[in-house]
Automatic annotation (TrEMBL):
PANTHER family listed in its UniProt record: CBB3-TYPE CYTOCHROME C OXIDASE SUBUNIT FIXP
Residues of the Cytochrome c domain: 107-210, 242-369
GO molecular function term, any single one: electron transfer activity
Protein name from the UniProt record: Unannotated protein
InterPro entries per the UniProt record, alphabetical: Cyt_c-like_dom, Cyt_c-like_dom_sf, Cytochrome_c_Oxidase_Subunit
TM spans (from-to): 12-35, 72-92
Swiss-Prot/TrEMBL keywords: Heme, Iron, Membrane, Metal-binding, Transmembrane, Transmembrane helix
């Protein structure tokens, strides 16, 4: 929460100091005028003292040695003070500026957190600190609006959202939501309730809660070990496990236990019904296109091309494969788009959703569908 009271107290203190200084200056000014007037009155008509221009001034000895030395000495001291003060100021300035930026950022993060928890209640679906969760949702017939089913829809973890999307791409998701799902539009462009500033603040908050690479990697590995401990050929060895290959297990990460709200899976976008536990044809298409029946072999003549696509997802409105056009909505799974340019990076290059081995496995699975 932004601390308004202390800001007010601070503002009041600054004003009090200002007023006190002002009053002091006025008093000094008044006293000076008083003295001047008295002095002036005393001089009128009196010739007790010689007028200033008739009084003999200091002689050459006094002027050229002592006085000159004293003046030059004072100048030197003042020069030294300036010479030291400016470099000190100059040295301190960058850190003062950085601190100011940090402070603004901290305030934005706190405002964003407030929106995440209270204002928009993102936390009620995506979990505290963005660990992922579920949303109760009523599916209706798009044509008639009739009730179809009440379901629990997985809400993906957001503590790795900056692993796969740039802040601009997240802004787009927040502005328009996902119409077919419980995720509503939040921004004004999509008719939502949040302002541009509130969306920017929520994104600052999301950036601040991204988990370290090792934590994400270990969690994915532990989940895969539960559903598919793969042997050297990539076949699953977990007895009674539902997946035959590592690729199939990666594709469906979190289906049975909603691990990370399905954030690491591909099926939540490529298999209809997957997000609410009623998965239909695997890879048959949903928010993302159908991947079956050799479509991926036609789109990407070699597996390497497909691995490159899944790893580093192309920007919106750029073409990919033989006839693909990116909508900018899938996200990168093997290269962090926020760590590509070291100068502007806000994430570290090892913060990625899946290892290259896992991506190769899931691509092999998709090509077999
Ligand atoms: C009523 C529940 C609900 C609320 C409230 C909600 N979301 Fe969502 N959100 C979802 C669901 C469900 C999805 C996944 C939709 C799908 O299946 O593609 C989602 C998807 C997302 C995605 C895309 C994630 C991805 O990897 O595809 C982002 C980002 C997101 N939400 C952020 C937010 C933020 C930020 C807020 C608060 C301003 C918020 N959501 C509020 C339910 C919700
Ligand atoms: C948030 C939803 C989403 C997730 C999660 C997702 N995809 Fe996609 N995927 C899409 C969309 C949308 C497209 C269509 C291309 C576009 O619009 O940019 C696509 C396209 C593809 C394509 C190209 C299909 C074609 O024939 O043009 C492949 C291959 C693919 N995805 C693989 C994967 C893999 C592998 C994963 C998991 C590691 C994955 N996707 C996760 C949404 C998603």
């Amino acid at each position: 929460m932004y601390d308004f009271t202390s800001t007010l107290v601070l503002a009041n203190a600054a004003r009090t100091i200002g007023i006190t200084l002002g009053v002091l200056l006025l008093i000094v000014f008044a006293i000076a005028i008083l003295f001047n007037m008295r002095k002036g009155r005393a001089e009128v008509g009196s010739e007790i003292e010689l007028a200033a221009n008739r009084r003999p001034y200091l002689d050459d000895d006094e002027l050229e040695t002592k006085k000159l030395d004293r003046t030059l000495g004072a100048g030197l001291v003042i020069l030294a003070v300036i010479g030291i003060a400016f470099p000190l100021y100059w040295l301190a300035e960058p850190s003062r500026q950085t601190n100011a930026v940090e402070e603004f950022k901290d305030i934005a993060i706190r405002r964003g957190e407030n929106t995440y928890v209270n204002g928009a209640q993102c936390a009620s679906c995506h979990g505290p600190n963005g660990v992922g969760g579920v949303a109760n949702y009523t599916i209706t017939d798009p044509a008639t609006g009739d009730y179809v089913a009440a379901v629990s829809w997985k809400a993906p973890a957001l503590n790795t959202i900056m692993y796969r999307y740039t802040p601009e791409q997240v802004t787009l998701i927040l502005n328009y939501g996902r119409g077919f799902s419980p995720m509503p539009a939040w921004g004004a462009p999509g008719g939502g309730p949040l302002t541009e500033q509130q969306i920017a603040d929520v994104i600052e908050y999301l950036i601040s809660i991204q988990i370290p690479a090792e934590e994400s990697k270990a969690a994915v590995q532990a989940e895969l070990d539960k559903t598919c401990a793969a042997d050297s050929t990539g076949n699953c060895t977990v007895a009674g496990g539902s997946y035959k290959t590592l690729g199939e297990a990666v594709f469906n990460l979190g289906y049975s236990d909603s691990f990370a709200g399905g954030a690491y899976s591909c099926a939540r976008c490529h298999t209809k019904g997957w997000s609410y536990g009623q998965a239909q044809v695997p890879g048959g298409g949903g928010f993302g296109p159908n991947l079956r029946d050799g479509s991926e072999i036609r789109q990407f003549p070699t597996a390497d091309q497909q691995i490159a696509f899944v790893s580093a997802y192309p920007k919106a409105q750029t073409s990919y494969g033989s006839q693909g056009m990116s909508s900018g909505r899938m996200g990168s799974f093997g290269v962090n788009p926020n760590a590509v340019d070291p100068k502007t990076a806000i994430m570290s290059p090892d913060q990625v959703m899946l290892t290259q081995e896992q991506i190769a496995a899931v691509v092999a699975y998709e090509r077999s569908l």
